[in-house]
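Known limitations

Files may contain more than one protein. Parsers should not assume a single record per file. Below, a two-record file is shown to illustrate correct handling: read the sequence, read the token line, then continue until end of file.
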Amino acid sequence: MVCVSGLDPHEMLPEQSSTYGGVSGKRPKRRKPAPDPLPDPYDGGGPGEPGGPPRTEGGEGPKRRRWGRIIGFTVLALVLIVIGGSISTWVWASGKITHVGALPAYAGQPAAGAGTTWLLAGSDGRDTLTPEQVKQYHTGSAGSIIGSRTDTIMLLHYGASGPDLISIPRDSYVEVPAYTDAKGASHSASHEKINAAYQEGGPQLLVRTVEQNFDIRVDHYLEIGFLGIVNMVDAVGGVHMCLSSAVHDHYSGANLGAGCQTLNGAQALAYVRSRYSLPNSDVSRMSDQQAFIRALLKAADRPSVLFNPFSFYPFVGGVLTSVAADDGTGLTNLIGMARSVRALSSGGGTSGTLPIADESYSVSGLGDTVLLDKTKTAEVIGAMRADKPIPSGLLNTVS
């Protein structure tokens, strides 16, 4: 018998079965198909398969997730590098700060004022200079100087107003309070030039002399030496200054022509130390020092310095290794000061010298001193203490 196409012989009725293998009389049972195995939850299939991700066009799902993970890990690595580098820089910079006990606590100390007030001093100590540096910078040997001295004394104030950069003439006639020297000898209060306070009692006596004579609380103290100026200027690639007249000073070694020019470290040091060739001697020098500070701030505030590690790290290292700060001053305070005085670099803020009544006030045993105008000085200090703008016309300036 011919089989009907498409039919299974076992499914035909008996009378239709083939005589070559059919089973007569009974219909065979139909077998149930075996169920599909359950997907293994631990066996991920491909896209669209059991246990696998949903199928997407072009298979973009896994690729996107893989690139997402790569980008995420890259960003995390960069963040960790930045944080690690910042911490390392912070530790490195903090370790370079030299501290000195400069802020004494004593009975009758002026109350703290508004804002922040720094006392800045320029030390002329030669002890750390080599014979070659002494000759190069025209500083004179350490043996020619009795004790350490300071030719630069400034009050820097900032807060709601300011910044104010006010010079105190080094020959200002003031009362140096009683003190005990390093050898334990006691000294009574006496009237002297203000730089004698630093020479006789160091930073502590200088701070106390400033506080008691001007009735202002000093919050921080910062001192910088000869090499600090040289290192900072060279690290920023020099400072650009425009001189109204030539400066030739045999004592400081300055030999600068009039006009705009870029000073290197040695030239800058000679410039800020010059006074004998200037028309108003110390008063002119204080004006030049303030102009130099503004020029240095402007040079240091350039992106080529701040964002170039080959300039930034030498500059910061040169600053921190050449200054001494009071025990309570840390890197946070120095950064805050740097940010607050940026206005000086663009001609903002206020700068000048405490009001002078007599530039050649003769005192027996001391020679010529600088006599400050008490009334006007009190107005200047009162404005700083209250963190208010200094009234115009009070400060001495040299154009």
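...continuing to the second record:
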Amino acid sequence: MGTFWNTYGFYVLYANIDQFNPKDHTLEYDQLPPIDRWILSKLHSLIGFVDKNLENYKIIESARSMQEFVEDLSNWYVRRSRERFWVKEMPQDKINAYMTLHTVLENLARLSAPFVPFMAEQIYSNLVRNVDKEAVESVHLCDYPQVQEQWIDQELEKNMDLVLQLVVQGRACRNTANIKNRQPIGRMYVKAEAQLPALFVDLVADELNIKEIVFTDIVRDFTTYKFKPQLRTLGPKYGKLIGKIGAALGTLDGNEVMDRFQRGETLELCVEGTEVILEQNDLLIESAQKEGFVAEADRNVTVVLDTNLTPTLIEEGFVREIISKIQTMRKEAGFEVQDHIYVYHTGNEKIAALMAAKKTAIQEEVLGEDIQSGTAQGYTKEWNINGEKVVLTVVKTSERK
């Protein structure tokens, strides 16, 4: 419910800023980018699923599917589309984003009305009745949403599902390597049953801040496996030899052993003159990464991150951290989304050089009119950016003295 409400709040915030009225526009499906068509496809797949389940009195399944949809709507569609709402004026792509999100929220209000009646009523009243006085008086008097089969694109949903899985696994790899998402990474390798079209590959690369993604059938160059005896099954068979079996397993090529198991074969060892026959369930198996690489495997998909960082990548990571800190200061200072600012810095020559070299890029991201060395009257804060201390000041353009 909180995620649904916050997504609705996001739409209202920017629609009010832009004075956007959905009655002045139409949803031009043929002009929509893939991410808009994806969320509309997911919406109508959801409508069909909920309607069918409610007919069979499957309430929990219906509620859970709506919950999962709202998570995708907020954490993927809205987050990936935020910059479209920030664009100046009203280009067609921005209209597409507004109309798509309005369509989804309106249908979701009607779909969820039996579950969250008061929230659905308030959202419907504001989004629909507030702009169309001839609309049905209450969400509870509306027809239940109907599936638009022509808007369902199963191939698109399948591709985006793989995108989301790669993003989750890529984030897990970053967490394992303790590398923030703002730090660019040179390359990611993917082993999957299907290769994504270039458009979706670019989406993954942008989300995970990776320069290049390579689909490959061979990830063994970056990963291996470690094996330990499963005491529950091997203890009764080999008793005192368990320690020796573990030592012998440590000398083997993990990938070759795993290949044998995947072919349905057993592993034969000779330990102190005793023939030891091992099946896959006789062993505890751990995936391991070679130095400089981190891997994550799930549901026949393996992701490997190359965690070796070049000086250029490290510098770009610094710049992204600087931008993040300035954006945080904008919020803490209570600036409006559309406010332009001046930025001042002092106390660190390394960061001063970076901000001078990347001045234009930083200004574009933070709505900066100028970046200068020194201090000023404004919101000031000291930061530790990747071990470098610096003092930053932000001043709203209208308040600069």
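Parsers that stop after the first record will miss the second one. For reference, the second record is described as follows. Residues 182 and 320 are 6 Å apart (CA to CA).
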